Amino acid sequence: MNITQNGGPPRLGASQIRRLALVVAACLGCLLAAKAHARERVSFDAGGVPAGTIVVRTSERALYLVDGYGSALRYRVAVGRPGKQWFGWSQIDGKHVHPAWSPPDEVRRDNPRLPDVIPGGSPANPMGPRALTLSGGEYAIHGTNRPSSVGTFASYGCIRMYNADIVDLYERVRVGTRVVVVR
């Protein structure tokens, strides 16, 4: 019986095997990196902050949801860049699914070509799939269309999260949840 190249399994040369190994390694690296960014339960000294409070530690670029049992859920976040950070307390005054976004005046000054409104769900919308608006200003805890910015000092004062993480946090908190932002 004659087996032709078209009738049998494809034969891979050494360069094709190396290329395939690189693709597999890259895929595994992406999966492992995604796991490294996932939220995690950590021990946390809340210093008298009540359970259910969100604490943002700007220097760590981390958001903690305090559980009241000496631990908290920790999420990696992006925070305000130098000169755009704020510290103090606020509370969640709104919960929004696929929010539309209107650039604040300060953002518009730096980016005059932005439209007046970017619809919710648009890939150009920097709010991501959920937003928790904060009382006392134009700030929110929200998702992002720039996941590579998470873990950096990147925003105009908002707290950016990975989209999967903001969806998770959104389900765990309510309007009225206290938010404390510290250095």
UniProtKB/TrEMBL annotation:
Catalytic residues (UniProt): 142, 158
Keywords per UniProt: Cell shape, Cell wall biogenesis/degradation, Glycosyltransferase, Hydrolase, Peptidoglycan synthesis, Transferase
Residue intervals of the L,D-TPase catalytic domain: 52-182
Cellular component GO terms held in the UniProt record: extracellular region
Signal peptide: none
GO BP terms in the entry: cell wall organization; peptidoglycan-protein cross-linking; regulation of cell shape
Pathway where this protein functions: Cell wall biogenesis; peptidoglycan biosynthesis
Gene Ontology molecular function: glycosyltransferase activity; peptidoglycan L,D-transpeptidase activity
Record-linked Pfam families: YkuD (PF03734)
SUPFAM superfamilies reported in the protein's UniProt record: L,D-transpeptidase catalytic domain-like
Gene3D superfamilies in UniProt: L,D-transpeptidase catalytic domain-like
Highest taxon, organism lineage: Bacteria
PROSITE patterns, A to Z: LD_TPASE (PS52029)
Similarity field: Belongs to the YkuD family.
Protein name: L,D-transpeptidase-like protein
